[in-house]
Amino acid sequence: MRLFAAQSKCASAHRDMTFAHRKWLRAHRDVTFAHRKWLRAHKSASTAHRDMTFAHRKWLRAYRIASTAHRDVTFAHRKWLRAHKSASTAHRDMTFAHRKWLRAHRIASTAHRDVTFSQVLDLV
User: Fold this and answer.
1) Structural domain range at position 64
2) The whole model's pTM is what?
3) How far is Cα 38 from Cα 77, in angstroms, rounded to an integer?
């Protein structure tokens, strides 16, 4: 009877151990799956972060180039404005001088005509 009781106890303990082992195996499998899922997510997040970093650097380079170009355009525009102002002033001055010359030429022409007529009249 003792042998039977011992065997029964042994079988019960073995069954309990088997159930516990299966429970541990399921828990280990679940942890492994969760860890793999986390690894995939981490890899995706890491790749996304890398891509974002590269895109940000690309944007920074483009922004720097655009900013420099804008500055250069602004300086060139100011230079053009100064030159245009100078040219405009020079044109205005040239126009005034031309008008002055035209008046003087008209006066001289009229005087020359008058002198010519008076010489003709003196001859007659």
Assistant:
1) 1-90
2) 0.49
3) 57
The structure tokens listed for 36 are 């793999």
Residue 98 resides in a domain: no
Q: Looking at the predicted structure, is the pLDDT value of residue 65 above 90?
A: yes
Q: What is the dihedral of CA 41, 46, 49, 50, to 10 degrees?
A: -140
- Would you state the structure tokens that stand for residue 53, as one six-digit string? 């970093």
Distances (CA, A) of 118 to 30, 91, 111, 113, 114: 127, 40, 10, 8, 6
Q: Which two three-digit tokens encode residue 103?
A: 């008046």
| Spatial separation of the C-alpha atoms in residues 112 and 120, rounded to whole Å | 12
Length of the chain: 124
Confidence of residue 1 (pLDDT cuts 50, 70, 90): low
